[in-house]
Amino acid sequence: MNHELGDEWQAFSADTKPADYVHPIAIQALDEIGIKHEGYSKSVEVFKEKPFNLVVTVCDSAAEECPVWLGKGKRIHNSYLDQAVATGTDEEIMQVFRNVRDDIMRDVPELLHAKS
Fold first, then answer.
1. Burial level of 56, CB count in 10 A (0-12/13-18/19+)?
2. Mean pLDDT in the chain?
3. Per CATH, the architecture of 2-115 is what?
């Protein structure tokens, strides 16, 4: 979202159970559309005190593990397949990452524009 809407919005990303790394296929999927990933895997805990206009959870495990956003901001859940559990050939797994990337790139701007 920062790449596409950075002049209007500032997006942050976190996980309920962060890994010690950002998945390399996620980085590759972003690179395919000209987005250079900068950042690291982090917990939602680092953002609890940060005031947000909107918090969007993007996988069902996050919605189940964080039924109430304890920080400020409206919370909306959009369900996307958890790419980390994708199976199949390398190309099939890559396609799952692309599909989720594209769905988020389509859906989240609609949510943000509806919010403003």
1. buried
2. 85
3. 3-Layer(aba) Sandwich (3.40)
List the beta strands (DSSP E) in the chain. Answer: 54-57, 74-77
Separation of alpha carbons 66 and 39, rounded Å: 22
pTM for this predicted structure: 0.81
**SS3 of residue 77 by DSSP:** strand
The beta-carbon contacts of 97-101 under 8 Å, at least 24 apart in sequence, are 97/23, 97/25, 97/26, 97/28, 97/29, 98/29, 98/32, 101/26, 101/29, 101/30, 101/33
All structural domains of the chain with their residue ranges? 2-115
- How does pLDDT run across 11-40, given as a tens digit for each residue? 988 887 888 899 999 999 999 999 999 889
The C-alpha atoms of residue 60 and residue 113 are separated, in whole angstroms, by: 23
